[in-house]
């Protein structure tokens, strides 16, 4: 996993998109261009609220062709442990945030003849930068965006007015325009790569239908923006620099344990992924005290935070 370089940015705009989603525009504190990125990239946003520290990953939704700012969209989670609630309730224009340089684990496949994007809810965000990146490309693409209703459909107006709006398909379950996934995947053209981002139910539906249709696994790409709030088997966590060992019990997570033992200035960066062929979801975890790496390993997603 790539190292993240952290730096400060200033919040230049906060815009409500729906009742639960806000868009944040971030600019460099010195007015210079921000580091370059590619479609599908994310940044880590570091936040501090008293003794509580949060490090959340957010997809960049702005155009890779314009690095005068970064834009992220944050959904206020109902059971937020702090990150989304902090951004929604405390961050305002003029505030400074610490963020990472961009990293991309959901990039477009250069050899693809066509890109098929399937988004659910806030999972639309990485596809906005993908679409901007493809604006001057000859490679075909198509977006299918699923939401409960038009009111909860973030970026709806922008998508309807997109220069290539004929490639954008909005699906609202409340209006009877639910995505017909089986038909969509059955009709994909040779050389098409399928990218899915959204809740677990959507990802598993795409996986299941693709397997039924015998679609090649290496043409399927997934990014998940939330995990189920549960724990897993106990294991031992070793702090590499001090050599101290701590048992993370079944009912505990790494983040909760670190809050209890409180090592000096700790941070946790989490990167999402899937382990093949068992389809067990794993997140790579990088633990740091200051800039010193404590540990790096793959652990089940449910044991992270």
From TrEMBL:
Top-level lineage group: Bacteria
InterPro entries assigned to the protein according to its UniProt record, in alphabetical order: DmmA-like_N, FAD-bd_FR_type, FNR_nucleotide-bd, MRET, Riboflavin_synthase-like_b-brl
SUPFAM superfamilies: Ferredoxin reductase-like, C-terminal NADP-linked domain (SSF52343), Riboflavin synthase domain-like (SSF63380)
Pfam families the record matches: DmmA-like_N
Domain FAD-binding FR-type as annotated: residue spans: 4-109
Keywords noted in UniProt: 2Fe-2S, Flavoprotein, Iron, Iron-sulfur, Metal-binding, Oxidoreductase
Protein name per Swiss-Prot or TrEMBL: Putative oxidoreductase
GO molecular function: 2 iron, 2 sulfur cluster binding; metal ion binding; oxidoreductase activity
Keyword Iron in record: yes
GN (gene name): ophA1
Key word Cell membrane present: no
CDD domains from the UniProt entry: PDR_like
Enzyme Commission code: 1.-.-.-
């Amino acid at each position: 996993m790539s190292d993240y370089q952290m730096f400060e940015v200033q919040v230049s705009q906060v815009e409500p998109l729906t009742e639960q989603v806000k868009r944040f525009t971030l600019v460099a504190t010195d007015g210079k261009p921000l580091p370059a990125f590619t479609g599908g990239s994310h940044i880590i946003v570091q936040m501090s609220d008293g003794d509580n520290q949060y490090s959340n990953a957010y997809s960049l939704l702005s155009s890779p062709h314009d690095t005068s700012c970064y834009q992220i969209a944050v959904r206020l989670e109902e059971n937020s442990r702090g990150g989304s609630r902090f951004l929604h309730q405390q961050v305002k224009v003029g505030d400074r945030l610490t963020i990472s340089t961009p990293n991309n684990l959901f990039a477009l496949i250069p050899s693809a003849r066509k890109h098929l994007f399937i988004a659910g809810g806030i999972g639309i965000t990485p596809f906005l930068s993908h679409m901007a990146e493809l604006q001057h490309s000859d490679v075909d693409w198509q977006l299918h965006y699923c939401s409960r209703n038009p009111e909860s459909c973030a970026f709806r107006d922008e998508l309807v007015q997109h220069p290539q709006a004929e490639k954008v398909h909005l699906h609202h379950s409340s209006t009877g325009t639910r995505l017909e996934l089986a038909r969509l995947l059955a009709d994909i053209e040779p050389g098409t790569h399928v990218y899915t981002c959204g809740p677990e139910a959507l990802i598993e539906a795409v996986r299941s239908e693709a397997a039924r249709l015998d679609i090649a696994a290496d043409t399927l790409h997934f990014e998940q923006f939330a995990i189920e709030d549960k724990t897993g088997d106990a294991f031992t966590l070793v702090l590499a620099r001090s050599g101290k060992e701590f048992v993370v019990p079944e009912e505990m997570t790494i983040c909760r344990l670190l809050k209890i033992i409180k090592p000096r200035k700790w941070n946790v960066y989490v990167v999402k992924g899937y382990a093949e062929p068992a389809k067990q979801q794993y997140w790579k975890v990088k633990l740091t005290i200051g800039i010193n790496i404590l540990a790096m390993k793959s652990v089940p997603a449910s044991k992270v935070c």
